[in-house]
Amino acid sequence: MVSARGVIVTGGLGDIGRAVARHFAREGAALLLLDARDAAAPEAEQVAAELRALGAAAVLVRCCDVADAPAIAAAVAEAEAAFGALHVVVNVAGMMIYKPIAELAPEDWRRLLDVNMVGAALLIGEAFRRMRAGGCVVNVASVHARRTSPLVAPYAAAKAALVSLTRSAAIEGKPLGIRVNAVLPGAIDTAMLRASPNIRSGAEVIDPADLGQPEDVAALVGFLASDAAQFVTGEDVVADGGRMGRL
């Protein structure tokens, strides 16, 4: 058991998830990374080794479907047992599909909602049952929750729901001493963005000056999880370099 701050990051092997994990590793946190990818893959061990080298007190990587309630409960229990307590939850896990609304099947809607919103809701519920006063949750949503583009309706709807969930959870978390906030990233240089058909076709063009880095998101997450933000809860903070203000 370690005495460092215990942190769970979902989507921990993705670009933003890794950046968030690096931020907390530099602070000496104990980290549990949850990801849909195989935790036994060489990539996972490389990430874990990097985090340990940066100063993480402990690093665990687990394969987990965030919409699997028993798996989430087991992950939180493992973090509590290994780290002594759970202090921070960062819900980063997300996915996109690109289809017109007329072509979307029920399973498309369900899967996008499961990964982008229901998973966060399950983890928040477990955190509320186990986290001590002074803990916090940060949900990584998206500017798509406010303004969006064609072909990503389920993603935009799920992220909007995640922002709404953040407000509700902040209200219920306050008597528990747990803060809940959301970050709404804009265009961030990630594999997900580079894979976008809208970007690859040129239908959506991003000015390089408006392209953020995963570390930009991680820095904001780190602030919201810090004592400096102890009076901030129920907020959804945009990090898009000012791009949305001009759309």
What integer value in Å does the Rg equal?
Answer: 17 Å
- General shape: globular
Q: Which percent bin holds the helix content?
A: 40-55%
* Strands, total number: 7
The helix/strand class is alpha/beta
Overall average pLDDT? 93
How much strand? 5-15%
String of helices and strands: EHEHEHEHEHEHHHE
Largest beta sheet, briefly?
A: 7 strands, parallel
The tally of helices reads: 8
How do the strands of the widest beta sheet line up side by side?
Answer: 3-2-1-4-5-6-7
N→C terminal distance = 49 Å
Give the low-confidence spans: none
Your description of this structure?
By secondary structure, the protein is of the alpha/beta class. Strands 3-2-1-4-5-6-7 form a 7-stranded parallel beta sheet, sandwiched between helices. α1 packs across α8, α3 packs parallel to α4 and α4 runs parallel beside α5. The radius of gyration is 17 Å and the shape is globular. The mean pLDDT is 93.
Task: Give the secondary structure arrangement, pairings included.
Layout: E1 6-10, H1 15-26, E2 30-35, H2 42-54, E3 58-63, H3 69-83, E4 88-91, H4 106-130, E5 136-140, H5 153-173, E6 179-185, H6 191-194, H7 197-201, H8 214-224, E7 236-239
Parallel strand pairs: 1-2, 1-4, 2-3, 4-5, 5-6, 6-7
Helix pairs in contact: 1-2, 1-8, 3-4, 4-5
